[in-house]
Amino acid sequence: MKPVLIVDDEAHMAEALSEAVKRCGLLPTVMNSPVDALLKLNLLDYSLILTDMKMPKMDGLEFLKEIRKRGVFVPVIVITGYGTVENAVEAMKLGAADYLMKPFSFEALKSVIERIMPSEDTDLVAAAPVMKKLVAMVKEVAASDITVLLTGESGTGKEVIARHIHKHSLRSSAAFVAINCAAISESLLESELFGHEKGAFTGASEKRIGKFELANKGTLLLDEVSEMAFQLQAKLLRAIQEREVDRIGGKAPIPVDTRIIATTNKDLLQEVKAGRFREDLFYRLNVFPIRIPPLRERKEDIAPLAEFFIAKLSAKMGRGYSMSPEFSRYLQQRQWNGNVRELENFIYRTVVIAKSETLLPPEDEFEYKTEEPRETPGGTVKDMERELILSTLEETGWNKTKAAEKLGLSVRTIRNKLKEYDLDKKDD
Ligand SMILES: Nc1ncnc2c1ncn2[C@@H]1O[C@H](COP(=O)(O)OP(=O)(O)OP(=O)(O)O)[C@@H](O)[C@H]1O
Ligand SMILES: [Mg+2]
Description:
There is one protein chain. The chain is of the alpha/beta class. The chain folds into 4 domains: 3-116, Rossmann fold (3-Layer(aba) Sandwich), CATH 3.40.50.2300; 129-291, Rossmann fold (3-Layer(aba) Sandwich); 302-368, Helicase, Ruva Protein, domain 3; 381-427, Arc Repressor Mutant, subunit A. It contains 19 helices and 16 strands. It has helices at residues 11-23, 34-40, 60-69, 85-93, 106-116, 129-143, 158-167, 186-194, 211-214, 230-242, 268-273, 279-285, 302-317, 325-333, 339-353, 365-368, 381-395, 400-407, 411-420, and strands at 3-7, 27-31, 48-52, 76-80, 98-101, 148-151, 176-180, 195-196, 208-209, 219-223, 244-245, 254-255, 259-264, 288-291, 322-323, 358-359. The chain has a 5-stranded parallel β-sheet, with helices on both faces. Strands 7-10-13-6-14 form a 5-stranded parallel β-sheet. α6 packs across α7, α13 packs across α15 (339-353) and α18 (400-407) crosses α19 (411-420). Bound molecules: adenosine-5'-triphosphate and magnesium ion. Adenosine-5'-triphosphate (ATP) binds next to α7, α13 and α15.
């Protein structure tokens, strides 16, 4: 259930809105003061903000301004009193997603909410021929109950595809549960996966149902499965093979009917060869491998993806952002080592600082430089060497003897390198 923040100083109005929001299948939180909302809440936690216009201390317009000033792009619906059209217009200018004029019906509220927050689960853009083929294949795979192994660089859309498979499977009415095997410690991961009984270990004050069980009749996504500890891999194998799980401290195994999808951005076979991943588990997971290509191998997807993200942001902001030809060209030429995620973040940042609704390429590329993902360092070894030498010189106040010592190089090498970088004038 998506969380919605309601800000209204009048208690009965807030209560009525809260009821209406619940009826829309959303999770309301009520604040009676915008100042408190700004101080006490992380506004990014909400999928939507509904605010009254007329409030003491800070009105709805100021509240909206403050929200946007913080770079928070959560859609805001402003509720205005009868006959205050100017305020509504002003709110739209400031980036409200929409407004409602009092009095309004439940249906009016509901339709505004539905327009702003379409059930956006598994929106999938696939324009490049390779992706079209992939999506077609995914649909077929979805219908069967086969175990899928998704590989691909960071940010290529592995989770998006996994959700898509679930959505198009016979299991779609049951849960899709994801667990990241890299994010938590081995012992915690075991209890997250398989659950534990009350008192199974120190700190197990309550019984916990594991994700395997939560995904019963549904789909379990094992994200970054290559990172799972070797010991735990054996337990996972058992759960998959026997179709039952052992809660930690449990007396008897519990049968489960869970479809497994695993993802990895490492070469799993390489991990097997290196002795870090169990071969038997590899074959259990690698039943139907799907490789999601990096964005550089499907440049035809760049523009449609950008359009898609821009449309989504426009709907949230009540704006009509569009790409200038230069902007499209720029997107096409730029490197996207962080793949779709980097493109999405880039569009987001561009919209935040855009001065008009027609988006332009950045003036200052440096501002936009994102940290390269560690697995794919952007520069060459030479670049890194240069970086290292220069930063060490910076550190030592350009004392070449000290820098040479630190780097384990001769002073002469450092001098030669500086000549190579055309920085030898800095020598004296
Ligand atoms: N084909 C697509 N259409 C629309 N949005 C996409 C597509 N692929 C990826 N995205 C978006 O890009 C972002 C990254 O996708 P996702 O989280 O699925 O990548 P990932 O491969 O799981 O990355 P990581 O390896 O870092 O976990 C998400 O916000 C997702 O919604
Ligand atoms: Mg992921």
